[in-house]
Structure formats: C-alpha cells, structure tokens
Automatic annotation (TrEMBL):
PANTHER family: NITROGEN ASSIMILATION REGULATORY PROTEIN NAC (PTHR30293:SF0), TRANSCRIPTIONAL REGULATORY PROTEIN NAC-RELATED (PTHR30293). Pfam families: HTH_1, LysR_substrate. The lineage of its organism: Bacteria, Pseudomonadati, Pseudomonadota, Alphaproteobacteria, Rhodobacterales. This is LysR family transcriptional regulator. Transmembrane segments: none annotated. Residues 1-58 form the HTH lysR-type domain.
Length: 312
C-alpha cells in the first residue's frame, strides 16, 4: 500500500465510481481499477460492492476511508508545514467550538486570522460540547474547544479555563439575578436540560450532582434555541454559564443566579487528536485561541478563571 493507492481509493470512495474518480484525478479508469484490485488483494478484503450504477463501499471500505482520510491529511500537513518554514503560513484550519466559546471569541478569531494570516482559510464549526468531541474524533476538525472532554487516549486535552455555572430562568420562577441559589433549592425547581444529557452539554464536574439533576429534568431538548424559548415560557429553569445568557440577563428577560453549596463549574479544554502532527499553522491558531480567551476573561466578557500553566 502506498500514498498513491490511498489517494486513488479516496477518490473512488468519494465519487462512487471509477469514472468520477478518473475525471477528478486525470487518471485512466483502467489504472484506477488495477490499483484498486491490488489494494483489495493486499488487504484480503473487498472494499467495494460492484453495482450497475457504481461502487458501494463495504464495511472494510468505510473503515479504510477513515484511515486514508487521516493519513492523507497528515501527509498534506507535513508537506505544507515543511514548505512554509519561516514563510507566511497558509492552508485550511478547522476549529470546533461549543456554543458559548463561539459567542465569546468566534468573531474575534475570524477577524484576527483574516487580518494577520490572510492565506489561512479558517473553518469554524459550532456545536454542543459533546458533539464537538465527536467531530474531533471523526477528524472533521483539527482543534476543538470542549468542556470537560471524556478521558480518551485518542485525544490530548489542555485545560484553559474554569467557568462557574448558575441557574437561569424567568425571575418569577427562580428569583432575582445575582442572588445565589443552593443545589438543594435548585432541586425543587423544574429543570430543563439538553437531550444529550448534562454530561455532554452543560458538562459539570460533580458526578453525583449530575445524576440528581438528570433525575429532576422535566424536559430534555437538543437545541439551545428551544431551551431558550422554554425558559421564556416559564416551563422550567436550566443550568448555564453567565456568558451563554448574557444578553437576556442584561435586558431583564431572564434571571441568572449563581449556584452554591456546592458551586458548580465546568472546565474548557483545547483538544487535538493525540497523533496530530505539530505544524506551524496549528501552533499559530492555538496560540491565538489562548490569547483571545485570556483577553476575554481579563476584560470581563467571559466570566471565568484561567487555569494556570503549571496546573495544566
């Protein structure tokens, strides 16, 4: 197996036919068919089912495509990185962020990249925190800002900040903004949570409290907008960071009460796949992300505490 065969295989997989791959690669269909046959012979597996209207990948073909995508992307990264050296960086960088992280620094990141590194194409992917981890594991993003990622040998996670959580809802239901609420008081209120579960959305550290919160949920929704609407209709309250509901709290639409006894928090980590090669462009984007997060905290836009470098 060599890089050329993997590129041929990837094109055939993505086009679903030898003809489509041939047009993309400018390689004869007979050559593609030959290399595909050699690859299947070497692996001892059929990679495609031959059908009248094209080729359908088998389970082995899907697995190989995942590996091939990661391998070829690593090769492309290596070539671009070495060619760049001390030159102006370029290429595509895909960054995944949870909703609140995008709210805090998403636009600032885009402006900074366009101003300082115009040859870098930034792809910003917003999702719920649990989904952001999935996109990283599927190699759909290169860097990801994720709250409390699960321990996984496939990823490297660098803690950046700790964010306190509060109870959010209509003042008529939860009380006035700024007044702390205890966990025991919280448990007497109707709680709305993300469909994926607190552990993948709100992402708190306290496991036992998480279980209690889940047991109290009256509604589960897989949409930030849906939860916001439910809060305004006084269907319940939710657990959130101050950043996530800052506008609604500022205009008096919703109330935010810090949770105490105990206080609840979540940790934001900068995550990469463990086998991702270090490149100039990724290191540059990582540095900018850390700088923007620090600035957002220092100027008060992000109500959080930086994790000291020695504690990482």
């Amino acid at each position: 197996m060599d890089i050329r065969q993997l590129r041929y295989f990837q094109a055939i997989h993505e086009h679903g036919s030898l003809l489509g791959a041939s047009r993309r690669l400018h390689v004869a269909t007979t050559a593609l068919s030959y290399h595909l046959g050699r690859l299947e012979e070497e692996l001892g597996q059929r990679l495609f089912e031959r059908r009248p209207r094209g080729l359908t990948p088998t389970a082995a073909g899907e697995r190989l495509h995942d590996h091939a995508t990661a391998i070829l992307r690593a090769v492309d990264h290596a070539v671009a990185d070495i060619r760049q050296g001390g030159k102006e960086i370029s290429g595509v960088v895909r960054v995944g962020m949870a909703y609140s992280a995008v709210k805090a620094i998403g636009i600032a990141l885009a402006k900074r990249m366009m101003a300082d590194h115009p040859r870098v194409q930034l792809s910003l992917n917003e999702s719920l925190s649990g989904a952001t981890l999935s996109t990283l594991l599927r190699n759909e993003v290169d860097l990801a800002l994720i709250y409390n990622p699960q321990t996984d040998p496939r990823i490297k996670a660098e803690p950046l900040l700790i964010e306190r959580m509060g109870c959010v809802g209509m003042a008529s239901l939860i009380g006035e903004t700024g007044t702390p609420i205890t966990v025991e008081e919280l448990m007497t209120l109707p709680i709305i949570m993300l469909q994926q579960g607190v552990s993948s959305g709100m992402v708190l550290d306290e496991v036992e409290i998480l279980k209690r919160i889940e047991s109290r949920a009256v509604l589960k929704m897989n949409s930030v907008q849906a939860i916001s609407g439910a809060l305004r209709e006084q269907l319940g309250c939710s657990i959130s960071s101050r950043l996530s509901v800052s506008e609604a709290v500022a205009d008096g639409t919703l109330s935010f009460r810090p949770i105490i006894e105990p206080s609840l928090s979540r940790t934001l980590c900068l995550c990469v796949l463990a086998d991702t090669p270090q490149t100039y462009v990724l290191e540059t984007v990582r540095s900018i992300l850390c700088e923007l997060i620090r600035d957002a905290i220092e100027n008060g836009r992000w109500d959080a505490q930086l994790v000291a470098p020695e504690a990482r």
